[in-house]
Design a protein that fits this description.
The complex is a heterodimer of chains A (221) and B (292). Chain A is mainly alpha-helical and 221 residues long. Chain A is 81% helix and 0% strand. Chain B has helices at 23-33, 41-52, 68-82, 93-101, 114-122, 155-163, 178-189, 193-196, 206-214, 225-228, 231-234, 262-270, 274-282, and strands at 59-64, 86-91, 108-111, 131-136, 138-143, 169-172, 200-203, 220-224, 237-241, 250-256. Classes of the chains: A mainly alpha (221), B alpha/beta (292).
Chain lengths: 221, 292
């Protein structure tokens, strides 16, 4: 078992989640509560990473953000940040390919909240933040939970983008999914076996737990 | 809390390879940001342990897949003797060439085809023009139970193609893997290339080609001598060398890239020492003429 890769994957998933949760919350709530011209276009952009082949996404990230690109060169000279073949680059890629997994469940959850609840809260003198914190978030909680689980599990399993953008560098960009591929190539089927089983079980447990939790949360209301 | 079962005895968390924003810095920054907030506790813990461990500069070696078993042996000896830490990454030389031009943080590049090294040197991405370290060989690997015969002259391959015994033959990708390019040259030399092309399964690198050839998904494969001599493969089938004049020689060259840390420089020197050369010879590599 390649614990280094397991740890790296978990760290990547955590960082992705931390970055994406506030942004996903804002974007999901905005899409759920407002109507505007061009909303369909924004929603399509949000879902795009879901339908795009990972290699296409990885290719554009590599070419668009790599050291040879204008963006990559600018980041390197001004901030000393290199995105291709580094953990930082994986975080950027991971945030991008997880946008639909984070935003969609949150948007659906906020859409399910009756508008008059927020209005009633406003009439009762609650501020926007108080309404969000005390009324909307407790109701949208199952959506946030499934967004979290989907983002986490998806990050653990993503392969194409990570390989294109990150290469296969142990301790920096070799995630569990890449490590499995690496073990197979190294004739270490037993090692690949163990990690594949770990990923399968972790994914199943996470998804089952989120279903279970959201069912309980819904019943309690 | 470090698991003992780490390969090559390497430790994690490993230091980022560059002084700029690597994995540890990102985690440490997020850890600091989230300090004191209960839901972020897990991230804080991870970030803190990441930052707390002293960061000895680790050298990252990008090596041709054919070196897989030989280099793991040599690197383990080197780490034990010097206390330096290495990260070994294996793949096709052409892929590493592209990745290095994209700015991949490798320190030592060991290429199965010296052209890639010389082209990087021409682009001034390397410290110098490097040095030759080995000449590789290819041969036909036939897994146990296959209807093919391990015939290095490739005559049986032609017969098997004609009588239907050959369904699939594994080679490495000729577009970017030197061993794949030499396999194509050898097949062209015996006049088999156009006929056999639809029957090929293409591995990303020679190690994957060997994996295809040894697990029975193909009736055989053209792989490197060094992989065929590895204990993991030797028991899975039979191997016979293809005559060297069937293809251009696999002259292999290694080079230090700009910014290589002391561990990489030390390993580069160690690879020319008798102890390392002995391991290379054990895996079937010969010394190139003109090697220092």
């Amino acid at each position: 078992m390649d614990w280094q890769a397991v740890r790296l994957s978990v760290e990547l998933a955590l960082v992705t989640w931390l970055v994406l949760l506030p942004a996903g919350l804002a974007l999901g709530r905005w899409l759920a509560t407002t109507r505007f011209a061009g909303k369909a276009a924004v929603e399509a952009l949000v879902v795009l990473p879901l339908v795009l082949p990972p290699t296409v996404l990885g290719y554009y990230l590599l070419v668009g953000l790599g050291a040879a690109s204008p963006v990559g060169a600018w980041l390197a000279t001004h901030f000393g940040v290199q995105l291709s073949f580094s953990f930082t680059g994986l975080v950027v890629a991971s945030v991008v390919f997880n946008i639909p997994f984070m935003v969609q469940p949150i948007q659906r959850a906020f859409e399910a909240i009756p508008r008059d609840l927020a209005e009633a809260a406003a009439v009762s003198g609650l501020s926007f933040w108080q309404t969000l914190w005390r009324v909307e978030l407790p109701l949208a909680w199952p959506g946030l939970l499934s967004a979290t689980v989907l983002t986490f599990v998806h990050t653990l399993g993503e392969f194409g983008v990570v390989l294109m953008m990150g290469g296969n560098i142990p301790g920096e960009t070799r995630t569990v999914a890449i490590a499995i591929y690496d073990r197979v190539q190294a004739f270490d089927l037993a090692g690949a076996d163990r990690m594949a089983l770990l990923l399968a079980v972790a994914s199943l447990v996470a998804v089952a737990a989120s279903f279970f939790a959201s069912a309980r949360l819904t019943v309690r209301r | 809390m470090r698991p003992a079962a780490l390969r090559h005895g390497r430790q994690w968390p490993l230091a980022a390879t560059r002084p700029d924003w690597g994995r540890r810095e990102v985690l440490a920054a997020l850890g600091a940001f989230g300090a004191g907030r209960a839901p972020l506790g897990a991230a804080v813990t991870l970030g803190a342990t990441g930052a707390a461990v002293a960061s000895a500069p680790v050298a990252t070696v990008a090596a041709a897949s054919t070196l897989k078993f030989a280099l793991e042996t040599i690197a383990a000896d080197f780490e034990r003797q010097t206390g330096h830490r290495l990260r070994l990454v294996f793949g096709s030389s052409g892929q590493f060439f592209t990745q290095i031009r994209q700015g991949a943080p490798f320190h030592l590049f060991m290429s199965a085809d010296e052209d890639f090294v010389l082209r990087l040197a021409d682009e001034e991405r390397t410290l110098d023009r490097g040095q030759l370290y080995a000449v590789g060989r290819i041969g036909l690997f036939v897994p146990n139970g296959s209807p093919l015969r391990p015939d290095g002259q490739l005559k049986d391959l032609a017969a098997a193609l004609a009588d239907g015994r050959l369904q699939r033959l594994a080679i490495a990708n000729p577009a970017h893997a030197p061993y794949g390019a030499r396999a194509r040259e050898a097949l062209t030399h015996v006049g088999l290339w156009p006929a056999i092309e639809p029957r090929l399964v293409i591995g990303e690198n020679i190690s994957q080609a060997a994996q295809f050839a040894s697990t029975g998904s193909a009736q055989g494969g053209i792989i490197s001598l060094s992989l065929a001599m590895a204990p993991a493969l030797a028991t899975l089938g039979r191997f016979e060398l293809i005559p060297a004049h069937f293809h251009k020689p696999l002259v292999q060259r290694m080079v230090l890239l700009k910014g290589a840390p002391p561990a990489a420089v030390a390993f580069y020197a160690y690879l020319a020492q008798p102890q390392a050369l002995e391991v290379m010879a054990r895996f079937g590599f010969t010394r190139p003429a003109g090697a220092r």
